[in-house]
Amino acid sequence: MQESEEVSALIGGIYDSVLDPALWPSVLKNLSGFVGGSAAALYAKDPIGKGGAVFHDDGGIPQHYNKLYFEKYVKLDPSSTAQFCFELEEPFSTVDIMPYHEFLETRFYKEWGKPQELVDHIAATLDKSAAGMALVGVFRHARDGLVNDETRRRMRLIVPHVRRAVLIGRVIELKSAESAAFADSFDGLAAGFFLVDADGRVVHANDAGFALIAAGDIVHAAGGLLSPRDTELRQTLQDVLAAASHGDSAIGHRAIARMLMGRGGERYAAHILPLSSGVRRRAGASYKAAAAVFIHKAALETRSSAEAIARTWKLTPTELRVLLAIVEVGGVPDVAVALGIAETTVKTHLGHLYAKTGTHRQVDLVKIVAGFSSPLLD
Fold this sequence. Notes:
4-stranded antiparallel β-sheet, Beta-Lactamase, single chain, alpha+beta, Arc Repressor Mutant, subunit A
């Protein structure tokens, strides 16, 4: 299969998973194969790497290793705080977090990765807040080798579509949507929901959608055409509708999530799901719909204290990890044990922390972290 065909099929499966989450395991298996790995998963971690869960995976990691990871090794995994140091959708691998020779000496690799012959991992953050982070990741087996430029290129092609699917899936929270009951499935949704045809004409809306049109603050329907007040969203909708007839890959990276502001200061988020093929095409066929548009109230965005600290002091993932461990665990010997790294490695990064923050004692580092604490970040 040519890459363009493979990409189009993969993206189509990703978007179909919005309406039928049971498709995620097969989609992730295809994603892993495309990127070049042995296993892939959608998962979440809490802000300081103390826990998390797998939302969907392709079965490439045995369940007992998944269980062991979140019970024990998530705290030892060098990537558990790495997501604070990277932008949304930006792929990162082991060498972006720490020197690879240091990684090979960690307890995490020796006790969890090496027994499975896993040598690397490439991931990207899909969504983050003070409450946690959602990520997509692909594991590399020894036979795959380490992450390379081609791995990163392929990951960048796919991650924006995974992120769009995950964000829309959170809004609608459906187990499945059969085509015959597609519109009915959304009628009770708190978010405004619109089905629009190829010309942008509204062919169905739920009660929340009609309320948004009646208010005229965010969208209106002039001559039956859905017309967002926001110029960029209006253009994005037109672009998506124009591209939808050419297949899912033609959608590109448009409209992951568009933030809107109402006249009264209310904040909304808008998402566009193309209905161009597969499960989505069948679901919208009876309405001759080309896209589904979701508009909902946006929650207050807050950064976790860890992310704020990392950005303020320009800390590397390993430096942030050591800093948080100093605060939570204590001295160098205990931190070394807790993180599964050598004491000399802890001391090296501790020296970097002192230099970057202008401090000289561990107690001063603790005060810095405490200073970033806020009720909004807990």
